[in-house]
């Protein structure tokens, strides 16, 4: 199964996009690419397919979900001095590493 082809992205000035507006807005519809529009050399917007726009909206929602989890996690550690957090993190890492070594050694003993 072939992977979908990524649309080509073209950059043009606002005045050029204005002159070719009909073509510019139908390119994404035809699957021919995306258009980044610049004003005085600075990108100010893009014309993309509705699928691209929906994908971007979904990515925005996913980013918000991840940021929400991060904010809630941070709140759980509010008020704990950084040095104490570092000590607890180091302790947890050491415990996980010791558990991993014990499991690895046990498995190696069984293989013999």
Descriptive overview:
- This protein has 112 residues and is of the alpha+beta class.
- It folds into 3 domains: 47 residues, 3-Layer(aba) Sandwich (YefM-like fold); 29 residues; 33 residues.
- The protein has 4 helices and 3 strands, in the order E-H-H-E-E-H-H.
- The chain has a 3-stranded mixed β-sheet.
Primary descriptors:
112 residues, YefM-like fold, alpha+beta, elongated
Topology of this structure?
Elements: E1 9-13, H1 14-19, H2 21-26, E2 34-39, E3 42-47, H3 50-76, H4 82-111
Parallel strand pairs: 1-2
Antiparallel strand pairs: 2-3
Distance between the amino and carboxyl termini = 44 Å
Main pleated sheet: 3 strands, mixed
CATH architecture annotation of the largest domain: 3-Layer(aba) Sandwich
Mean pLDDT: 91
* Proportion of helical residues: 55-70%
Bulk shape? elongated
What do we call the CATH topology of the largest domain?
YefM-like fold
| Strand order in the largest sheet | 1-2-3
Task: Detail the poorly predicted runs.
Answer: none
Beta fraction = 15-25%
- Please work out how many helical segments DSSP would assign: 4
Structural class: alpha+beta
Task: Give the helices and strands as they follow along the chain.
Answer: EHHEEHH
- Looking at this structure, what is the CATH superfamily of the largest domain? YefM-like domain
Radius of gyration: 26 Å
Number of strands: 3
Number of domains: 3
